[in-house]
Amino acid sequence: MANPGTRTLQLLSLLQSRRYWPGPELAARLEVSPRTLRRDVDRLRDLGYPVEARQGLGGGYQLAAGAVLPPLVLDNDEAVAIGVGLQAAIEAGTVAGIEEPAVRALSKVVQVMPARLRRRIEALAAMTDPVAWRDSASRVDADVLVSVAVACRDAERLQFAYRARRGERSRRQVDPHRLVLLGRRWYLVAWDLSRFDWRTFRLDRLEEPVATGERAVPRRLPGEDAAAFVRSSIESVPQRHQVDVLIDAPAAVVRERIGPWGALEDVSSGGCRFTMTSDTLDWPTLALGNAAADFEVVAPPELVDHLSERATLFARAVNRVGPSRVAPVTAEPPTSSATNGPSSSCSVRSEDDDQQGGPFPSPD
Fold first, then answer.
1. Are 212 and 156 in contact (CB under 8 A)?
2. Helices and strands, counts by H and E, the chain
3. In a shared domain, residues 94 and 24
4. Backbone angles phi, psi at 206, to 5 degrees
5. Do the bridges between strand 95-96 and strand 140-141 make them parallel or antiparallel, or are there none, so unpaired?
6. Range of the domain at 292
7. Which of 165, 142, 147 is nearest to 157 (CA)?
């Protein structure tokens, strides 16, 4: 049997790892008698940890919320995980209002770490160049994120206001299942009680989550896991535009310039085909600008008109510099053949090097 001090720390670690422990199971894990377990629980209470006990059949122990946050017991891997998570939270910027608290928490965790663990966290920070998404429209409120996470953990029914993809607002009541962070967006996977089906909800469109106090009904998710379900939901959303473009540059070269937003395949010794789906033509326009090579639009024809509008806009900006600094630029309108049917094409020269990106579409 371990000495009382060591055993008390083990007990605290176990209580922090699960919401509730049946008494016999907890005593078996510590290899002590129920009487010794009660004494260890009292020792934790004397140290300020609010341990609640349930009597009778099925009785046990749980660590309750107290007036202040007591010290936590972390092993080495848990401490590193917290450090990495806090660093990622600071750099990603996907949760509103969490950056400053994350910096304070990270400084406290790193300060008490052993030197070898601290070097691992410091190496991560030193060797990472963060490129945070600063799209405020897709940032999640920290209180919303925590409230939904608690409802998922406690299997408690949830109500909230929701703004759908096309702007419609509604009140939803769901049985929450799991949170998924996909790319730079948070999603809730839940059983919608008014639709009688599984749904995914973007957390940046979710407001005023309230736990009802009712237990969520456990159901089997139709999919491998919650992340796979979210991906499947996103891929099933019909996109407005299927982009198909031939670029006069090898796929390897274009991939270095435009990144992951779209598929590339070589179609000749010096050219490739670029395809992507998008709910707006702005993203393929930016991607093609970054490609910095001649290209031909195969589909959709609306992209040709979109490029023509942007070319006219850029031409006006160039001409405002003055004839003494640059030769005038004239944007040619698309030919009539470029707007008749899905097989139309138009050769366009683009040198726009704005940074590209692309949001995930929303399934709801």
1. yes
2. 11, 15
3. no
4. -105, 135
5. parallel
6. 241-348
7. 147
Site of tokens 């176990």? 14
The answer to whether residues 259 and 290 belong to one domain is yes
Count of structural domains, the chain: 4
Both 189 and 229 in one domain: the answer is yes
Q: Which helix (H) or strand (E) holds 148?
A: helix 142-154
Residue 268 resides in a domain: yes
Indicate whether 245 and 344 sit together in one domain: yes
* Contact predicate 158/174, CB 8 Å: yes
* CA pair distance 334, 40, nearest whole angstrom: 80
DSSP assignment of 213-262, as one string? Answer: EEEPPP---SSSSHHHHHHHHHHTSPPSEEEEEEESS-HHHHHHHHTTSS
DSSP state of 321: T
CA separation for the pair 2, 31 (Å, rounded): 9
* The last residue of a domain, from among 188, 217, 235: 235
d(C-alpha 346, C-alpha 364), whole Å: 35
Q: Are residues 333 and 270 in the same domain?
A: yes
Q: Are 216 and 154 in contact (CB under 8 A)?
A: no
* 164 token code pair: 């759908």
Residue among 181, 100, 175 at smallest CA distance from 138: 181
Rounded to 5 degrees, what are φ and ψ at 292?
Answer: 55, 45
Whether 141 is covered by a domain: the verdict is no
Q: How many Å apart are CA 173 and CA 246, to the nearest integer?
A: 47
pLDDT digits (tens), the chain, 364 positions: 567 777 888 888 788 777 788 888 988 888 898 888 889 888 888 887 888 888 877 788 988 765 455 666 667 777 777 777 766 665 566 666 666 676 666 666 666 677 777 777 777 666 555 555 445 456 777 778 888 888 888 889 999 999 887 778 899 999 999 888 876 778 899 999 988 889 889 888 899 999 998 999 988 888 778 888 888 777 666 557 889 999 999 999 999 888 777 889 999 888 999 998 887 888 899 899 999 999 999 999 999 999 999 999 888 888 887 655 555 555 454 443 333 333 333 433 322 323 333 433 344 5
Q: Which residues contact 325 (CB under 8 A, 6 or more apart)?
A: none
